[in-house]
Amino acid sequence: MNTQFISVSSNLQFVIDQAITILKNNGIFVFPTDTVYGIGCLYSSKSAIEKIYQLKGRDFNKPLGVYFSDIEMASQYISGNDGLFKKLAEKYLPGELTIIAPKNELIENYVVSNFDTIGIRIPRNTFLLNLINQLGQPIVGTSANLSTLPAAKTASEAYSIFKNQIELIIEDDASIQGTESTIISIANGKIELIRQGILNINNDLL
User: Fold this and answer.
1) Whole-angstrom distance, CA of residue 82 vs CA of residue 74
2) How far apart are the C-alpha atoms of 109 and 103, rounded to whole Å?
3) pLDDT in tens, the chain (206 residues)
4) Looking at residue 64, what is its pLDDT?
5) Which end of the chain is more exposed for a tag (fewer CB within 10 A), N or C?
6) How far apart are the C-alpha atoms of 20 and 27, rounded to whole Å?
7) 4-205: which CATH topology?
8) What are φ and ψ of residue 35, in 5° steps?
9) Per-residue three-class SS string for the chain
10) Rounded to an integer, what distance in angstroms lies between the CA atom of residue 121 and that of residue 22?
């Protein structure tokens, strides 16, 4: 397999079209976010999800994150009252935050390792948000690395890890800040800090 390497600076819509074609054919790609590079696929592609775990050597008990284009799309996949999610999302998203919330039946269990929650990401990245919006459905992903090793902070690093094993790598190094997202959970109806990342959450909320 030859891995395509494309920069968003070439032609944004062309890059989006290439990614859509690959994703709709159950392909895998490395994509830029606002923190570190991710590796992902369509949320509905079970075969591609399984391959991501295999490529990374990732424990199947660790769920993938789910990436959305906006708050409205993410709300469609949350179970129960989404008031607390919307309050946080309107303050911090798009941005460097993962919000763990109860999922509904639209997210299959194989996406989230049989958990009843999803980790929601709406990154501040023009390419990724436009891609998901044009797809009309979420993608799932995790950091672009081999498990236990640091996440790729440049597209070239990602290429050295996954070359000839995946279909596409999208370069947008300018958007990468190099520190992973902050993770909070609202699964129990209150805000719990799971991982302190690049984004600082207002202490009054915790």
Assistant:
1) 10
2) 10
3) 999 999 999 899 999 999 999 999 999 999 999 999 999 999 999 999 999 999 999 999 999 999 999 999 999 999 988 899 999 999 999 999 999 999 999 999 999 999 999 999 999 999 999 999 999 999 999 999 999 999 999 999 999 999 999 999 999 999 999 999 999 999 999 999 999 999 998 765 65
4) 96
5) N
6) 9
7) DHBP synthase (3.90.870)
8) -125, -80
9) CCCEEEECCCCHHHHHHHHHHHHHCCCCEEECCCCCCEEEEECCCHHHHHHHHHHHCCCCCCCCEEECCCHHHHHCCECCCCHHHHHHHHHHCCCCEEEEEEECCCCCHHHCCCCCEEEEECCCCHHHHHHHHHHCCCEEEEECCCCCCCCCCCHHHHHHHHCCCCCEEEECHHHCCCCCCEEEECCCCCCEEEECCCCCCCHHHC
10) 21
Give me the residue spans of the domains in the chain: 4-205
- C-alpha 22/C-alpha 51 separation (Å) is 15
Nearest to 30 by CA among 143, 196, 175, 130: 143
Length of the chain: 206
